[in-house]
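COMPLEX REQUEST
Ligand: zinc ion
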Amino acid sequence: MMKKELLIAELEKTDGIFTLAPAWVPRSFMIPGKRLKLHPDDLYALGKERGGINERWFASTTQADNGPETPVDEGLSYIVIKNEGQIHKVLLKEAIEIMGDDLLGKAVMKTHGGWTVLTKFFDNYGPIPFHIHQMEEHAKDVGKDGKPESYYFPPQYNQIVNAFPYTFFGLDSITTKEDIKRCLANWENGDNDILKYSKAYRLTPGTGWDVPAGILHAPGSLVTYELQKNVDIFGMFQSIVEGRSVPRELLVKDVPEEKYEDLDYLVGIVDWETNTDPNFMKNHYRIPKPVSQLENMQEQGFEEYWIVYDNEYYSAKELTVYPGKSVHITDDEAYGFIVVQGRGYLDRVNVECPGMVRFTDLTSDEGFVTKNKAKNGITIKNESEVENLVMLKHFGPRV
Ligand SMILES: [Zn+2]
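STATUS: Structure written out below.
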């Protein structure tokens, strides 16, 4: 069968719920945190040179920009279709190219041209270097878009917090532009000490943060459910992390060549006012917000919270269905989902959170729900007598 026919048959069979295969991504410059349920023997399944696997991407239509050895489909999610005893795989990216109106709705296709959110778990042993993602005005200097990102720390994946459960955000309000210029000028002299101008916040499972473009940040070692605009753009501002040198090329990776040594330009990338906001935590910390009256939801056998919100680019919800309960849940847009605890059914589609996964295994914990299906609603049944069924749902921009 052709891809389109396979997709149409699958949509008819499931009424609009696709099962997705795990998309594992290695990073050569990070130490993997070993909490993504990947079998320990498979941590370096792609070879030592490509690095340990410390990310899993969800409902991804974004190819990983990950060095010269990167396979063409790295980072991309496959729809898994079981048809007449055979297993077929179609890239979610291709499915959206073929029938985006059916998957995301006409309005989203017209305004955004596809699925513009990249969602992932990242799982590191220690901190990521202090870095920034350019705002629109600097991104366009290199022909790219600006990049906001948001974090949530799922408790189910954070029983162990690893080496540095703190994230540095922004700059202290007494910092001057001269201070940061001095740090950048000192790049080759060892640790440029930029972290002394920032503040670290203790990360708490079950909460999150909103990080607009232009904010300096050094994410800590919790397993992070991250939503971001699907653009690869960044600048590293820290010259040494965990004793490892960060090449200066990574500071100017997305800067016009004539600005490589221009400290005013480089400091200009920083959204100064937002970075030095004395109310940074008040404005960017995210506590889950019930999507409707909590007692009502609890009486029906579930709880649902916004976990990523107040953001025009994407949003996310956490849905918990109590043991043995069956609930009907509607949403207004298409979404991807990852089951982080328990087992059950989404209509007739079986879902379960795995205990352990081999690198090439398929799983039943991930999927994608079309816009129509989301609007009509899904009956979600928790098959366990004792354990909650918990899923995280990632949405693109609203139209
Ligand atoms: Zn970042």
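REMARKS: The chain has a mean pLDDT of 97. The first helix runs from residue 3 to 14.
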